[in-house]
């Protein structure tokens, strides 16, 4: 087994153990006790989004190494490959968790999303290429912090609070910057560098962007309608 796959397996096991122990660390409020697995699932997702390496490695490395934006295929900073492998382990764990605890018609969108991410990130881990591209994609996790906090506040029945309102504003702001703008930049880079990317990998990347972009725009509309248009 390659070291990357070992990191993926270790990450899967670590997030699985965290998921099992989170109910003791963060007991669910009365409003969330009917859906305990969901409470654990969201806190596990928040733990992944809040990983210090994600925020220290992604924006800082692109600032210190501007050449990364020109070569996202063969160039990546130290630690980036392991970070992507850790994320693959998390998405696998979240996929299994939803598959075991939620009905398919309720979770198919997220399962589909996770499948695309696992395939794209898995290619980067196995080939040790396109790690920089995956690193850009991980910028969306900065927004995911506020997206998961929103779900936690909803489950805790804290919708009519200043904390929820403030989080809603920050959530939408970071959504535009770290999700929509990031995906647009990735799509542009992929189009401009199509001659430097093998056809099979280019096809996977193009299909991934074609799926992710409308999904994120639809989610943005839902958030806007739910938190500001009601």
UniProtKB/TrEMBL annotation:
SMART domains cross-referenced by the UniProt entry: TLC
Membrane topology according to the record: Multi-pass membrane protein
All residue ranges annotated as the TLC domain in the record: 34-230
Entry keyword set: Membrane, Transmembrane, Transmembrane helix
UniProt record, GO biological process: membrane assembly; phospholipid homeostasis; plasma membrane organization; regulation of membrane lipid distribution
A Pfam family the protein falls into: TRAM_LAG1_CLN8
Protein name: TLCD2 protein
Source species of the chain: Pteruthius melanotis
Gene name, Swiss-Prot/TrEMBL: Tlcd2
């Amino acid at each position: 087994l390659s070291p990357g796959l070992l990191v993926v397996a270790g990450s899967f096991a670590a997030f699985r153990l965290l998921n099992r122990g989170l109910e003791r660390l963060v007991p669910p409020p009365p409003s969330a006790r009917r859906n305990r697995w969901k409470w654990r699932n969201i806190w596990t997702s928040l733990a992944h989004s809040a990983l210090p390496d994600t925020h220290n490695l992604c924006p800082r490395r692109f600032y210190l190494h501007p050449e990364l934006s020109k070569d996202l295929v063969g160039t990546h900073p130290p630690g980036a490959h392991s970070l992507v492998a850790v994320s693959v382990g998390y998405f696998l764990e979240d996929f299994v968790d939803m598959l075991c605890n939620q009905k398919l018609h309720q979770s198919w969108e997220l399962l589909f999303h996770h499948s695309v991410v696992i395939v794209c990130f898995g290619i980067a881990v196995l080939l040790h290429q396109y790690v920089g591209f995956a690193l850009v994609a991980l910028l969306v996790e900065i927004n995911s912090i506020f997206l998961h906090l929103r779900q936690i506040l909803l489950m805790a029945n804290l919708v009519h609070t200043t904390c929820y309102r403030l989080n809603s504003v920050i959530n939408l702001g970071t959504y535009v910057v770290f999700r929509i703008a990031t995906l647009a930049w990735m799509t542009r880079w992929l189009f401009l560098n199509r001659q430097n990317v093998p056809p099979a990998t280019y096809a996977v990347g193009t299909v991934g962007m074609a799926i992710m972009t409308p999904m994120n725009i639809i989610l943005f509309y839902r958030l806007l309608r739910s938190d500001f248009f009601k």
